[in-house]
Amino acid sequence: MKKLFAVLFAFFAFSAQATQISVQFDQPEYAQGDDVFASVWLSDYNDALTYFGLDALFESLDLSYIDAEFSPVLDVAGSPALNMAWLADDGVVSLFSMYSSILDDDLPQLLAQQAGQPLQLVTFKFTALNTLLLPKLALTNVDLTFQGLQVPPYVNPTPVPAPATALLLLPALALLRRRKA
């Protein structure tokens, strides 16, 4: 019995697909004053990404935050994404990006545009304050929202004839009349 549970656990553990988010730097080491670019990538997802938000933690003694440039992964023709990034605290950059279309017809276009391929979400620009060997950038409070194409079930309501509806209401009306009297 233990072997059966072990086999089932291994099957489900290895067959599960988890969305992965990673950080890639443009080079392995930096001299003082160099521009440091760190890109955040998303991979192994199924549905259309419609929102992401995160906090990026960095060592403020080694890096100085300059800017965050968002990739157009949530943009749809005529509806650019709502993007926002700010220095929340010493060594913390907070950001979010939101798919802004209110039209349901744009979701298939967004899904086709992303097509399950790795997505570059945002690129941070820092200045190196010291000589660095691969700086550290930790992502916390990561919030990802995905939306698939859901076709609502077709419901064909059966009309209730008017005389039958009146017959259903008669006992209730009789009870009301009896209470008043």
Describe this structure in words.
This protein is of the alpha+beta class and 181 residues long. The protein has a domain at 24-145: Immunoglobulin-like (Sandwich), CATH 2.60.40.680. It has helices spanning 2-15, 106-114, 162-180; strands at residues 20-25, 29-30, 35-43, 48-58, 63-70, 82-89, 92-98, 119-128, 132-133, 137-147. The strands form three sheets. Strands 1-3-8-5 form a four-stranded antiparallel sheet, with no helix packed on it. A four-stranded antiparallel sheet has the order 6-7-4-10. A two-stranded antiparallel sheet has the order 2-9. The chain is elongated and about 90 Å long. The termini are far apart. 16% of the residues are buried.
Helix content: 10-25%
Question: What is the averaged pLDDT score?
Answer: 81
| DSSP strand tally | 10
Regions with little confidence, pLDDT below 50 for 5+ residues: 10-15
**Tertiary shape:** elongated
Distance between the termini: 72 Å
How many helical elements?
3
Structural class: alpha+beta
Q: What name does CATH use for the topology of the domain at 24-145?
A: Immunoglobulin-like
Write down the oligomeric state. Answer: single chain
Give me the strand/helix succession.
HEEEEEEEHEEEH
CATH class membership of the domain at 24-145: Mainly Beta
**Gyration radius, in Å:** 27 Å
**Architecture of the domain at 24-145 in CATH?**
Sandwich
Q: Report on the biggest sheet.
A: 4 strands, antiparallel
